[in-house]
Prior knowledge:
Layout: H1 12-26, H2 39-48, H3 54-67, H4 71-75, H5 79-85, H6 92-110, H7 118-121, H8 129-140, H9 150-158, H10 167-177, H11 183-196
Helix pairs in contact: 2-3, 2-6, 2-8, 5-6, 9-11
Amino acid sequence: xxxxxxxxxxxxxxxxxxxxxxxxxxxxxxxxxxxxxxxxxxxxxxxxxxxxxxxxxxxxxxxxxxxxxxxxxxxxxxxxxxxxxxxxxxxxxxxxxxxxxxxxxxxxxxxxxxxxxxxxxxxxxxxxxxxxxxxxxxxxxxxxxxxxxxxxxxxxxxxxxxxxxxxxxxxxxxxxxxxxxxxxxxxxxxxxxxxxxxxxxxxxxxxxxxxxxxxxxxx
Length: 219
């Protein structure tokens, strides 16, 4: 990860500690909402989830993994067959190419296994730091970094945790603010809070445990 230096907003460390504590109490056992039984399954599901919803992807992956249960199976798959199975995921033609290429990379370079080093994992087609952090954190409990999706991007700015706008720089700031052994769960708590409470279009400020920390709380 690039060592981009940034100055944290005033009071960000104390705010992050309070946010961490309150969200931990509100969501003690946060989990990724994609269904999976292995690192391979979570990797493919996370790639497919781009520009889609976890709920939609959970209707697709049982069929996908029943037909191609291992990276080697998917790497040999006919592209048209994969496209048909994942059609409802959106951008299915590009996603089909990407997941087949990802499976091929796993087979050729990593013996069909998920590499457990983030620098290796991001060499897989379709995998950036966000996807890599999801997979390593949720499938292997490896705190490789913090997941920065659209929810985390929005909340981290809204709550005064960062002034950065680029995902890697936001992640670098959050990694300074949250203890390493909290990175996995804190990421998912922020995602779930953004998904179900602090929604972009209609935040439920009355139900928000962070309302008193938020400068844009709606009465």
